[in-house]
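Troubleshooting log. The previous structure file for this entry was overwritten by mistake, so regenerating from the original sequence record. Sequence copied from the archived sheet and checked twice against the printout by T.R.
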Amino acid sequence: MEIVRQFALLGQENEVLLQSRQRPIVLLEKKNDYALARGVSPKNRTVGVMLPYTPLHYLLVKDHFTALVMTSGNLSEEPIAINNTDAFDRLRDIADYFLVHDRDIYLRSDDSVVRIVDNKQRFLRRSRGYVPAPIFLKSRLKPIIACGAELKNTVCLTRGEHAFLSQHIGDLENLATYEFFEMTIAHLKRILSIEPEIIAHDMHPDYLSTRYAMEQNRMMRIEVQHHHAHIVSCMAENHVEEPVIGLSFDGTGYGSDGTIWGGEVLIARLDRFERAAHLAHTPMPGGAAAIKEPWRMAVSYLYGAYGKDFFNRRLPFLGKLNQSKLNILVEMIEKDFNSPGTSSLGRFFDGIAAMVGIRSHVAFEGQAAMELEMVAEASSGDLYEYAWSSEDTIQIDPRPITTGVVMDIEKGVTPSVVSGKFHATLMAMFADLCVVIRKETGISHVALSGGCFQNAILLSGLSKCLHDKGFHVLTHEKVPANDGGIALGQAVIADAIARRTG
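Regenerated output below.
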């Protein structure tokens, strides 16, 4: 622990986590005089730390290493290699040396990743050390298998008052990961002696998990909306069964109307939900390309706020863009060509990150939003203006926030101040919106779920704003807020629907 203190800040809760029998990776705040190489966790205020947990680890560090920089043995989007031959075949182009072992690995299990926010443990990934320990539920469930999300996939099996979430499986985008998904289901069914009667899956028709569910002819099939599952996963781990206001914020989820959701305010019950409010839909020019190139979302929000007049705004990031690409992008938005609408808060974070010059392209999921969080300074109390419609389903207008950000950039306000003000505005806006919904519904429980709540500033700040307005706030402590926890919500919803429909 003395070595860890040389480069990271350690509180008592972090020490307990690091030395626990689960030995997770714990995200720690870097010290100002950070002693490790700059290439370790760049543009990030935190660093992931794990203590040795196998005899082999202790042998590796016995010669007074300060730290070993480690990553999983796999190429991006592929499962971890679990035998020597597989490692040689898949990793020979990126690894100079191999340390081999004669102990075979039967089932993959990535390291668990946790952090402390508001003095509570938060999972970013729940895997090795915690699986297959059950999540204890308030009510008994039928035997169910839930197939999880497409990204950060986990599956869930239920038996009575126990829900068994699998280890992290990964992104179901290739054959190798899909085979691991099938193997994990078979393994859990066998070791837990569960024969499911119901299979729950995402509404997206093209997900591999959905296709798997459609092939299971002996079980009752129930489709579950992505953001509803997020909220119910939070309700389930908190043993809440009455209606809640659910704030479900992430990058992508298939909506009930077939569009891309992600900035959702739901009135959620276990068996159904209503979409009370959402971010107004904004074009994603290029579709999935806008996820990897956040500058596209920045342009889309600017076009929504200014039309073509945004070309006249004094924004440094615009001058760095290829003008031909920029003109084509605007034409795509105008003609509604390959520009699906999205209500995603994650995409709004991406757009603001690109606008202030933090990141126009990403190397991994969520990078732009994460770096926007990392530069944020505590807000002085100033907020951007915000507004929403008065329709039955409230639409939150991103334009006032966008124009406020632009004016600050043109005044020379730093990205750190803009980021802090943007975060503070979101907290105030959604807290005020919850007050409006409480007046209409009488609901005072608010559940926070979705990948955006991996953002510690948003999670902590919005929780405080809601507490200050008299809400009972539900957050995740036992399962990830991201898609790694969604299978739990799918299972609980499927049980509730099955009981309602008989």
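The chain has a mean pLDDT of 96. Archived copy saved in two places this time.
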